[in-house]
């Protein structure tokens, strides 16, 4: 566990000191604010009830969370290989899962921080409309779970290669395919449609969070996707460590 | 300390190393010498647990590297050809990070960072970002990270590569001091580097170990004879020819050659199938001569190396 703690601390410090972290945070918050203004407070807003405005906010924020998670995660291991620092981790008494989990948790904390930076928007809805704090908490839980799943996909992608470009392509490809499962599920027949909708990264599993409804099924799904890809990343790192 | 048995490494179809077998006892410095592509880095990476051998067994401090790499990693410090530095970290912060991932407890790590910085003369750059350091300082930080957890085995891959002559001298001094506390493996294709810092030399060529031993042992094995440099102040009324004749008549001496004569001081190059320096000095002193120099001869590593490679090619 010592390795995990030390790697987590290093990564967090790296985010706080790199301009990339701040640029990403600023971009996400700016786009989120603009989207909130145009989508939720736009000309059609008056016709909507507060719950709908909140659902639209979580929907648009989920898209930005996915992109930010990918951007953040694809450098995690590929960059170590590019800079030649992977050899330090490889020859240190630190386990592969500690490397993967330490980096993942640091990225998750950073993404959570950026996501919580949008909190003023739903609070405006609370002040001016009728939504409960619980609805907001559920929505944010969904965003963080979705972010964790996409981060895990990105960590897996970055464990495969030393090129951040290739890692981005692989990570974005897996995420896109898992997003497409949802629209695909609506045009194919059962049982395939049920399988695809159960595996879809967005749509069925996120819509509950969007509406303020907490289903253990959805929580379990995101945790399972996160665990699966982190496990894959650990196995890849294990195999590549001695390559 | 280290035992290698029939170790080979293949990259695809290409054999990069082996078969290599040797044993290295604890203490001192061992040099790995070879041209570029001889397999030095591959061998050191295997010993540093960065690379798995394709066949054979590697044991470090009695632990099998393949079955228990984690335990081995606690006992080694490794400086690869390019020091593994995080550019966004200051020197002190980086060394603290490395100390912690190498297993130092949080209450010990700060003191150890200070010690290592003093030892490697990095105190003045404690707060400097590693990306702003000169090449020489980066190498020193690389050595500092390798010794921060006091490893039993220190592996340095081409530590003086790219350094200017002054930096080379400084780093050589540092390695000499480190020899007192660690078993050190150093690779280099610079012959003087190995010659001046190492007690034992392994010569690699095209992935194979073609010679091992001290510089003198390699020299003796190669020619089948020991070359002894003898400096003697001749007894009064003795001529140089008399002394040469006297030495030639001693047991185990195959040839004697005058290297230099300066009044009564005579320097001879003596060939013998054995290291007969003891009997040689006793005989000379008994005959009234003073022995002012007696050492195994300077078949310099450079010429040995060229000769070894020449033999291999032939």
TrEMBL record, chain A:
Key word DNA-binding present: no
Main location: membrane
Family annotation (InterPro entries): ABC-2_transporter_component
Keywords, ordered alphabetically: Cell membrane, Membrane, Transmembrane, Transmembrane helix
Topology of the protein relative to the lipid bilayer: Multi-pass membrane protein
Transmembrane segments: 20-41, 53-78, 99-121, 133-158, 165-184, 219-237
GO MF entries: ABC-type transporter activity
Subcellular localization: Cell membrane
Gene Ontology CC terms, in alphabetical order: plasma membrane
Transmembrane helix is among the record's keywords: yes
Name listed for the protein in its UniProt record: ABC-2 type transporter domain-containing protein
Organism of origin: marine metagenome
């Amino acid at each position: 566990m010592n390795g995990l703690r030390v790697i987590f601390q290093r990564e967090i410090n790296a985010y706080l000191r790199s301009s990339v972290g701040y640029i990403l945070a600023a971009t996400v918050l700016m786009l989120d604010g603009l989207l909130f203004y145009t989508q939720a407070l736009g000309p059609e807003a008056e016709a909507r009830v507060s719950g709908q405005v909140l659902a639209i906010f979580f929907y648009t924020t989920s898209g930005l969370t996915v992109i930010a998670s990918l951007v953040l995660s694809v450098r995690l291991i590929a960059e170590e290989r590019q800079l030649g620092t992977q050899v330090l981790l490889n020859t240190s008494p630190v386990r592969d899962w500690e490397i993967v989990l330490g980096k993942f948790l640091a990225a998750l904390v950073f993404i959570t921080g950026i996501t919580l930076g949008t909190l003023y928007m739903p609070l405006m809805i609370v002040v001016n409309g009728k939504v409960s704090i619980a609805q907001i908490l559920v929505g944010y839980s969904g965003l963080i779970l979705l972010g964790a799943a996409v981060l895990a996909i990105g960590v897996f992608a970055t464990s495969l290669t030393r090129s951040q470009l290739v890692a981005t392509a692989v990570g974005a490809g897996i995420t896109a395919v898992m997003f497409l499962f949802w629209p695909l599920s609506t045009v194919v027949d059962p049982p395939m449609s049920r399988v695809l909708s159960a595996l879809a990264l967005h749509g069925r599993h996120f819509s509950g969070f969007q509406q303020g409804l907490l289903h253990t099924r959805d929580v379990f799904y995101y945790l399972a996707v996160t665990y699966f890809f982190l496990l894959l990343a650990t196995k890849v790192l294990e195999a590549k460590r001695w390559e | 300390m280290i035992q290698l048995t029939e170790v080979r490494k293949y990259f695809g179809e290409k054999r990069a190393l082996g078969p290599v077998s040797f044993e290295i006892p604890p203490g001192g410095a061992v040099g790995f010498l070879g041209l570029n592509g001889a397999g030095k880095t591959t061998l050191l990476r295997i010993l540093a647990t960065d690379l798995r051998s394709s066949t054979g067994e590697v044991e470090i401090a009695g632990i099998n590297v393949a079955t228990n790499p984690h335990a081995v990693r606690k006992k080694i410090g490794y400086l690869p050809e390019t020091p593994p530095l995080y550019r966004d970290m200051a020197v002190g912060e980086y060394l603290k990070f490395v100390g912690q991932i190498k297993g130092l407890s949080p209450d010990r790590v700060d003191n150890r960072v200070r010690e290592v910085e003093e030892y490697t003369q990095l105190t003045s750059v404690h707060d400097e970002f590693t990306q702003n350091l000169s090449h020489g300082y980066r190498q020193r930080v690389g050595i500092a990270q390798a010794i921060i957890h006091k490893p039993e085995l220190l592996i340095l891959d081409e530590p003086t590569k790219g350094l200017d002559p002054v930096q080379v001298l400084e780093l050589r001094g540092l390695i000499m001091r480190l020899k007192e506390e660690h078993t050190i493996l150093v690779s280099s294709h610079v012959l003087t580097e190995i010659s001046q810092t190492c007690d034992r030399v392994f010569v690699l060529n095209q992935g194979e170990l073609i010679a091992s031993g001290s510089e003198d042992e390699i020299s003796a094995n190669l020619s089948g004879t020991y070359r002894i440099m003898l400096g003697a102040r001749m007894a009064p009324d003795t001529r140089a020819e008399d002394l040469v004749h006297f030495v030639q008549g001693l047991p185990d001496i195959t040839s004697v050659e005058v290297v230099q004569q300066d009044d009564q001081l005579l320097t001879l190059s003596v060939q013998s199938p054995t290291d007969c320096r003891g009997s040689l000095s006793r005989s000379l002193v008994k005959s009234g001569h003073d022995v002012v120099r007696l050492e195994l001869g300077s078949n310099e590593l450079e010429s040995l190396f060229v000769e070894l490679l020449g033999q291999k090619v032939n």
